């Protein structure tokens, strides 16, 4: 069994990105990311700060725009418009979730698709489904794919079972593995006999947001298990969707929480911002 070290894999990718950014800067193309945080949700704040730190470490231009919880939808749209037309900004990310008085779809659709480094805009979703190479792919699914590739396991023809069907993770993750010629099953809260499905998974992706929903009896021996869950227990401890301790000896490869998918997500955001810069300025 190997524990997939997201921090280490992310570090290797970031080293390559840092070289690429250096070259782009020499040509006068410094990749730039604008991150917009609305309100003061502690988890969102810590994610956003980690994104900004990663930009700085890689020598990218970054702007963090903090807006009050009470901001109107119109003012937030104006803020997005200003970054849409800002030549120094290649990527725009609005941290989700947004306060309930703001229409999330409207905000996502206000970002021009060429700067939508999250890959949440319907144009990018469509491009991804069509297999267009200029689609921005959501960062967490991209990070998952990189980690699975790193195991050296062949993906083609494998059965990938995705538990969770969110627009941010589950749905695009399944699409990405389909493109790699896997057979994909999506499971969700209405799936009957979840265990019967998960036991089919050569690769099992858990993206539900419920602590330890994947137990040892649900995992096929020798599976690759990817845990996307980030759940905070009452004790304050972080835990995933997968019962790591019980499953680690049964899986061939497994990701820990923390230190698994999380660091990869931020790295893929940097990767998408570099791509955005290259695609816009070439
Ligand atoms: N909230 C949780 N994950 C994400 C993400 O990947 N992008 C954005 N914009 N918000 C998030």
UniProtKB/TrEMBL annotation:
Keyword Signal: no
Residues bound to NADP(+): 164-166, 230
SUPFAM superfamilies given in the database record: Aminoacid dehydrogenase-like, N-terminal domain (SSF53223), NAD(P)-binding Rossmann-fold domains (SSF51735)
Biochemical pathway: One-carbon metabolism; tetrahydrofolate interconversion
Keyword 4Fe-4S: no
Protein keywords: Amino-acid biosynthesis, Histidine biosynthesis, Hydrolase, Methionine biosynthesis, Multifunctional enzyme, NADP, One-carbon metabolism, Oxidoreductase, Purine biosynthesis
Tetrahydrofolate dehydrogenase/cyclohydrolase NAD(P)-binding domain span: 138-278
InterPro entries: Aminoacid_DH-like_N_sf, NAD(P)-bd_dom_sf, THF_DH/CycHdrlase, THF_DH/CycHdrlase_cat_dom, THF_DH/CycHdrlase_CS, THF_DH/CycHdrlase_NAD-bd_dom
Domain of life: Bacteria
Pfam families reported in the protein's UniProt record: THF_DHG_CYH, THF_DHG_CYH_C
Location of the Tetrahydrofolate dehydrogenase/cyclohydrolase catalytic domain: 4-118
Subunit and partners: Homodimer.
Record function comment: Catalyzes the oxidation of 5,10-methylenetetrahydrofolate to 5,10-methenyltetrahydrofolate and then the hydrolysis of 5,10-methenyltetrahydrofolate to 10-formyltetrahydrofolate.
Family of this protein: Belongs to the tetrahydrofolate dehydrogenase/cyclohydrolase family.
Record's protein name: Bifunctional protein FolD
Originating organism: Fictibacillus barbaricus
